[in-house]
Each structure stands twice: as C-alpha cells, then as structure tokens.
Design brief:
Blueprint lengths: L1 E3 L6 H6 L5 E7 L3 E5 L6 E6 L3 H7 L10 E13 L2 E11 L3 E7 L2 E2 L10
Length: 118
C-alpha cells in the first residue's frame, strides 16, 4: 500500500518522517484517505494499492454513515517518490478490539480475532 500525499518539505517534517507510529486519522469510503495530525501540518492523502476485503479482515467496519472506517491510526511511512510514500506499518483503533494492525513491515498483517468466540 502506498500513501499519495503532499507533505511540505522542511527540517521539521523531514525529522518527523523518520519516526515510527505517526498519529493519523483514517477515513474509508470508496477511497481510503489518511490525514496526518499534529505535529504535522494539516495534510490529507489517498491510499493506493489497497484491498477493502483485506482491510476488513483486520479492522471491523462501522455501521452507517459515509465511511466504513472513521478512526484514529498510527502510521510509519517511507518516501519512494515525490509525494508518494510506502506504508511500512499501519494500525487502526477499533472501540471494541483496540489497536488493529493492518500493515506490518510493508505487507498486510496477520488478522487478529475481532469477535469474541461466545
């Protein structure tokens, strides 16, 4: 999965991009959008090369509304081209199951149990 986003280039953002688990906000409808949060400037990008079925195996969809997923996340990215970043790690927060790893080490994470067995 890749994140297509225009991040202003300066010393602060370059240092922030070296960090792991950057706070973000994720919105999924037909498109998958990720907004980077403070301390980044307010920027939003679109995820490419993603699979809804793979996402839903790892994070439960919400009920109703414009978005199937509308939640906080943590992201680690690596620049691969101008305004294009490979998603190294991505986790979404789900109220019923806590942090749900979506991507680990650049590939889809092993799905965890999202529902109780009872």
């Amino acid at each position: 999965m890749n994140l297509n986003i225009q991040i202003p280039k300066n010393l602060v953002t370059e240092e922030l991009l070296r960090q792991k688990n950057i706070p973000c906000f994720c919105r999924v409808s037909r498109d998958f959008e990720i907004s980077l949060q403070d301390p980044f400037p307010d920027v939003t990008g679109k995820v490419s090369d993603w699979d809804r079925r793979e996402l839903e195996k790892r994070a439960m969809a919400g009920a109703g509304g414009k978005y199937t997923h509308y939640t906080n996340g943590l992201i680690t990215i690596k620049e691969i081209d101008a305004n294009q970043y490979h998603i190294i790690d991505l986790s979404l927060f789900c109220c019923s199951s806590g942090w749900c790893p979506i991507v680990e080490n650049g590939v889809y994470a092993t799905p965890k149990e999202l529902w109780d067995k009872e």
